[in-house]
User: Fold these one by one.
Assistant:
Number 1:
Amino acid sequence: MQLVESFTPQAEEYSFEQVSILEASGAVLIPAGPDAVPAAPDNAAMTDLELWKNLSAVKAGRVCPIVSGASSPGTAIPLADRTDTVLTTLAGA
């Protein structure tokens, strides 16, 4: 098996102090709770920060919780449904 040298990681981790990197974002997607609508409680460590609360997307109400992952039909279908809802919401905002 040959490894692909141009592999790009799908995610990169940042510290909470670097949350301002999201300032240029028009909207922010965050992991959702089990029903795919409210933000997951694990997000509180970030969403309680003043740096987070001062982001333009947060102030504009353009934070959208989405279910994480699509490793099975059990998560892929809610992810597709929620993504459609998020895009419709953002288009009207």
Number 2:
Amino acid sequence: MSQTKMPVADFAIVGQLLDVIIKDGYKIKYLRLIFEEREYWIKVPKELRNTFDPRIVPGCWLEVSGTQKRKKTGIVQLTAEAIALAKQQQKSELDAIVLPKLSPKASILVCQKSTCRKRGGDAVCHALEKGLRDRGLGDRVKIRTTGCLKQCKQGPNLVVMPDKARYSNVSSAQIPALIEKHFTND
């Protein structure tokens, strides 16, 4: 098999920050930006983590430039070389007030391995979809199917994020109470 080098190109984006993805409790790994109604995940290299501006919070506008590389899988990886508050926001404090408040997107991880599915995992997924849709939370809360959550004998299993609350032996009847507990009592 021959090794072919994937082309690297530059990019520059001015977009609104949706979220800062943090790993290991303190390492800034990615910025989630929205630009022209598309969401981008931009990798933050180690060099930029130490100089990260504390004024950069979800909802602010950023100017990000860097390199983009297409991986063998076809996915384009964006890596930042410079991150700054957008000039339009630096002009006046009023711009920051006009920006819409973005709530962090919550998610529910539902195990879809065979044991959990046999014990009612599909029904739990359908009940979650219906419960969230009925309460108007379908756009705020994502349901993500996962692999094994290491509690096979107590399936179906789910984890509510960002609380990291784990639930086992979940039935469809329990779903409305879980949604109320985690998403509607803000």
Number 3:
Amino acid sequence: MAARKAMAKKTPRKKTPTKNPPASKSAARKTPAKTPAKGAAAKKTPDRQYLRREDLGAPADAFFAQQPPERREHLEALRALVKKAAPGARESMKWGMPYYQLKGGFCALYTSKTYAALSLMAPPEKLDDPEGKLEGTGKTMRHLKVRSAADLDEASILRWVKAAVAHHS
């Protein structure tokens, strides 16, 4: 027995490596199996409730009334062109700006300190812009920034709004 203890001290035992299961890339991929009794109970309300904006769905008139005169003039001109291009569109507040929709949202108006803008919700290939007036690099939206009355090209704006409407119809 003493010999075994001495041998055990001389030759350390090799530990077999434990294999860790491969880490999953996303926890969302693992979905537990649902039992019929838990199906309805599995849908929970989120722990964190987001506050709803007070102006969501409200008429947009108050937005225009709050704007400084130099940008209000440009916003009103853009608003008139949107209504001309899509007379049946619903105008309401969404994300703090006037939002226009028919079957789906197709454009919005917003302001910054130096310009008024029209957001067109359509991919750039649908918006014919040979002069490069539209800004942005996203896949689904472009912006027309109006800094002066010269930026209000009625024919182009009507064409772009109609293209955005057609994209969402």
Number 4:
Amino acid sequence: MRAGIRTNWRARPPLGADGRPFKSWLNDRGSLTARLQSAGRFALAVLGQRLDAPTRDEARRLELAPGRLAWVREVVLYCDGRPLVFAHSVLPRRPRGPMTRWLARLGARSLGALLFAHPRFARGDLAACRLDARHPLFRPAVAALGLEDAPPPALWARRSSFSFGCQSLLVTEVFSPAVAGLRSTRRR
């Protein structure tokens, strides 16, 4: 099981000088996939999809008992060949339902495209957090975003849940520092 620290996810986190460039990304309730597509050539790489223990803060948010396994999907989102977002999604094994089948069949397609295409998905509140090396998603994000040679002291992330019937999926998106300078043509 992955260890974790108590993380302070907030709807309106205090954004210091390092966080202000990410404000529009952290607060955008639209599809991150669509926003990246509007900024350039979009691509997605699946890093893995497996049964795994969610982080402690994810388990707490999903009301899962410690050590309970869930479906975990990790991908990297690219724009014009640059890795810009590490996405980590967690779907509890129970209750089973359509989201379990959809996730199993998703392959290299964007989860965001599915979530925003179906009108019966309901998105929960957005929360943001500044993740540092103590958080279990920091190192995988640094590696996935190609930042190992010069890792930043922290990375900004956002998360929200998506529900469909009795199932809930928690999606965490960790941003590369390079995303702060990216301009999209989509209106926010």
